[in-house]
């Protein structure tokens, strides 16, 4: 173990008991700096992970060894917890927790833990991770939809597992579905983005760490999120269809739909939600009310899109009515 001599000196300044609630803010700083920033307290163990592994091993109720298979356990990478205070980078100073002999009836002093049962607030738990991770896509975490409802980093991330499911395209949705039941139902509809086949992850459209758009979208707007994979819908078009550049969700349900092509409704009803029935008589799907009792030609089979096939816009010189 590559623990430095200072650690030994620090641990020698015994006698000061540390209460968890007092320790956390200073300790988040420790995690970032990789050293004891509060020189007044003797608190970290001398032998790092080895100390913990005396009691916590693969046979423990919570097996801890698998963390050594993760990117956090790379001592050669100076940025990782294991290049710093090791287990205590995240779990905080061991204090009295590692006491070998306990008096009869004496309870083991707690050590910082994560999750709902933790003695420290959700915000403080996240602070420990953000000390190293408030970069890139995560600068928007504070105040984001998830932060506001006390979802923590560890609600999604499995830190001790050799394989963090939320990072795997095909397993990620199940992590989200733990809390987002309605979205699961949407992705099991007949017409869907292929999330349930493991071909697409939620995070291709969402930045779950915080975004400046409603619904935590990965790009600055809903349409830009779609253009990422459907660039041909961006145009530019000679003849635009006004709702398309405005908002794809005016016609499509992004997760899934019972109608083909993720449509929120089928044509003609989709189209008639905006277009008057006057130009193209359409009351007569059944033929009722029309001369001769025949259904309107405008509504047959595929209805409107049979003729207006370029619903997303047309580049044909005579495509003004979105027909070619
Ligand atoms: C002398 C044995 C011993 C040592 C050393 C030890 N632990 Fe523990 N730890 C336990 C036991 C036993 C429990 C189960 C809870 C209890 O009995 O209170 C526990 C519980 C925990 C928990 C759950 C939260 C809690 O407070 O109950 C965490 C997290 C933890 N230990 C981390 C560590 C880390 C990290 C280290 C090293 C820095 C460490 N432990 C060193 C014995 C030890
Ligand atoms: C990168 C931060 C991090 C490091 C490093 C780390 N842990 Fe953990 N540990 C966690 C988190 C987060 C949890 C909560 C469960 C989870 O998300 O997997 C946890 C859970 C635990 C638990 C179970 C607590 C319970 O509720 O029963 C024990 C025990 C534990 N860790 C011990 C260790 C030991 C020993 C080491 C060093 C070998 C270590 N941890 C290193 C973050 C870390
Ligand atoms: C001491 C700094 C430090 C702390 C504290 C820390 N991490 Fe990390 N974490 C890292 C480094 C360094 C990497 C590796 C980054 C890389 O390889 O690009 C990493 C990687 C990760 C990854 C990606 C893993 C992978 O397999 O790609 C996740 C997720 C992660 N950390 C989440 C967390 C969470 C959640 C916490 C809090 C419980 C936490 N980290 C605490 C430094 C830290
Ligand atoms: C709602 C679930 C969720 C929460 C909560 C969450 N993450 Fe993530 N995290 C993800 C997903 C999904 C990915 C993979 C896609 C991505 O990078 O956006 C990821 C990726 C990461 C990565 C790896 C990025 C890389 O480039 O490899 C790190 C580091 C990370 N998260 C840290 C954190 C930290 C720190 C927190 C708490 C502030 C946190 N996460 C909270 C879902 C979550
Ligand atoms: C621990 C529970 C939990 C987990 C796990 C979780 N979420 Fe959430 N999420 C919530 C809660 C609670 C809200 C806020 C209330 C709401 O809008 O449903 C939320 C909000 C959101 C929002 C924003 C809604 C809005 O209107 O701003 C999106 C998008 C989202 N989650 C996506 C995800 C994705 C993707 C994952 C998996 C990578 C995930 N969530 C994992 C609980 C969770
Ligand atoms: C193809 C892109 C895409 C994928 C993949 C995707 N979403 Fe969404 N999601 C969206 C868009 C776009 C919205 C906003 C809808 C709107 O504003 O009309 C949204 C909205 C949401 C909302 C907020 C709903 C509300 O009522 O406010 C949640 C929660 C959510 N998505 C969760 C998920 C989860 C969980 C997954 C993965 C299982 C996922 N999304 C996959 C594009 C996507
Ligand atoms: C990460 C890439 C990606 C993003 C982002 C994305 N899509 Fe898709 N989209 C796909 C894939 C893959 C398919 C499936 C193609 C297939 O099944 O052959 C698809 C299919 C579709 C379909 C046709 C479904 C069918 O049954 O014919 C529609 C409509 C659609 N997407 C609309 C959208 C909208 C609207 C958005 C923005 C909210 C969006 N897409 C964002 C990748 C993406
Ligand atoms: C005015 C309603 C409407 C709007 C707005 C709209 N679409 Fe569509 N979209 C449709 C209809 C209708 C179909 C089915 C076409 C068919 O049946 O030939 C469709 C089909 C699709 C398809 C699958 C077939 C194909 O043409 O590739 C994709 C992908 C798609 N739309 C993406 C988008 C994107 C991305 C946006 C936003 C930029 C968007 N749509 C906006 C009505 C709309
Ligand atoms: C969200 C509302 C909305 C929906 C849904 C919608 N449209 Fe439109 N559409 C418009 C608007 C707005 C215009 C522009 C009208 C204008 O410029 O006078 C337009 C223009 C058109 C035009 C060209 C009209 C002209 O005078 O040049 C056609 C054709 C058309 N839409 C067909 C359709 C079809 C077919 C559907 C169903 C697949 C549909 N629209 C769905 C809003 C909508
Ligand atoms: C049989 C082919 C056909 C079908 C089906 C059809 N249209 Fe048209 N539509 C046309 C033609 C041709 C024009 C041009 C008429 C003109 O220039 O006078 C047109 C014009 C339009 C216009 C431009 C404004 C107007 O009234 O002239 C709109 C909007 C429109 N159609 C919407 C729809 C909708 C909505 C549907 C489905 C209910 C639909 N169309 C079905 C052939 C069709």
Q: Distance N terminus to C terminus?
A: 71 Å
Task: Record the strand order, biggest sheet.
Answer: 1-2
Mean pLDDT: 84
Total strand count, please? Answer: 2
Overall description:
The protein is mainly α and 324 residues long. The chain has a domain of 152 residues. It is built from 13 helices and 2 strands, in the order αααααααααβααβαα. It has a two-stranded antiparallel ribbon with strand order 1-2. The radius of gyration is 29 Å and the shape is elongated. The site of one heme C has 18 residues, from helix 10. The site of one heme C has 16 residues, from helix 12 and helix 13.
Question: Summary?
Answer:
The protein is an all-alpha fold and 324 residues long. The chain is built from 13 helices and two strands, in the order αααααααααβααβαα.
SSE topology:
Layout: H1 5-12, H2 20-33, H3 49-53, H4 87-91, H5 122-133, H6 145-148, H7 153-156, H8 172-177, H9 181-186, E1 191-192, H10 222-227, H11 243-246, E2 256-257, H12 269-272, H13 304-307
Antiparallel strand pairs: 1-2
The chain binds heme C (10 copies).
One heme C binds at residues 49, 52, 56, 62, 64, 67, 72, 81, 86-87, 89-91, 113-115, 154, 158-160.
Question: What attributes does this structure have?
Answer:
disordered N terminus, mainly alpha, 324 residues, single chain, binds heme C, 1% strand, two-stranded antiparallel ribbon
